[in-house]
Amino acid sequence: MAKELSAVKTLVSDLGPTRAEREELYVHFHKHPELSMQEVDTAATICAELDAAGIPYQRVGRTGIVATVENGAGPAVAMRADIDALPVPEASGKDYASVVEGVSHACGHDFHIMSLLAALKAFNAHKDAWRGTYVGVFQPAEETAEGAKDLVDNGVSKVLPKLDVYLGQHVLSSLPGAHVGTRPGPIFTAAASIRVKVFGKGSHGSMPELGVDPVVLAATIVMRLQTIVSREIAARETAIVTVGSLQAGTKSNIIPDDATLLINTRAYDKGVEKRLHEAIERIVRAECQAARSPRELEIEYYDVYPLTRNAEEETAKVRAAFDAYFGEDSVDIAPQSASEDFSYVPDDSETPYVYWGFGGFADQEHAPGNHNPAFAPDLQPTLDRGAEAAIVAASAWLCP
């Protein structure tokens, strides 16, 4: 471990001298966010940085990038950074806030980009400190669950070497600032969004007996869905069913022809998720029948995220490296109810993976959550900590 720590210190030694330069580049990414599958300028900037550092890379799909640093025989480690932003106007008050109207890095993916760039440059600059292959995967469209699938569909497995482990991280407000936390087993939920359209029969509001009211139908569905978690899922299990949108009608005295519900589910177990979806479909169909709905309902699943389950052995290896380097700042993290498309890539090649979080706010008590318009983590020490975590985790394999 002493030899490994010495190698890690060598690899992180450039973080101090390059701090101002890295902060300037971070500000650029933060001010110029791009939405999912539209990260053209972001990808171009990443490629320019890789070109300047002499790091070879391949484009995968329209905006995906796989950069590879080879350094002799040894393990192969990949690290992923998501690069897209959100359709959220920024309200952080930062003097480097987004200049793109209605779009911001309200989930912190700009920190992920910078962490991976710093790690790639560190492993490229200090090849005397490690052996093997280090791969950086810059992934588009995590926010819409399209990006990892897009990499797989565009043949990322043919670009990647045979990997020993696939790594990922996320800046969070649920961890104390500068702390790093991971856990074996489920760490992010499986999730799905479901669009349900139910049909009625339009009528004048003064003559409801001549129609079938889809607003009342949708309302009964919303209330009945609340019984799934409370009455069909065991107390020892975790599940979430949320109706985030209910849209119907245009005027107070018109009974409309249809109503649309947008439903979201979360679970830490695929079996539980299956039961949620079966229950939702059963309830919707039964309520439609009870309401005399004149047409078959429509159900569409979208924004589907897999369960993120950290590999036991590999997570223990990362945690030991974190403990040795970060000391008391290396902590256990509770399972997060958010979701990730991260695992699609390692699952495609049957590669074990480890995912962790790092804290972004010194004032954690008042920190906004991810996706909040005010979410903009402290520039430092968050920028350095993300880079350190990426380097330390990979070093558990690459620095014998």
From TrEMBL:
Domain Peptidase M20 dimerisation as annotated: residue spans: 191-288
InterPro entries: Amidohydrolase (IPR017439), Bact_exopeptidase_dim_dom (IPR036264), Peptidase_M20 (IPR002933), Peptidase_M20_dimer (IPR011650)
Pfam family, one: M20_dimer
PANTHER family: METALLOPEPTIDASE, PUTATIVE (AFU_ORTHOLOGUE AFUA_6G09600)-RELATED (PTHR11014:SF63), PEPTIDASE M20 FAMILY MEMBER (PTHR11014)
Protein name: Amidohydrolase
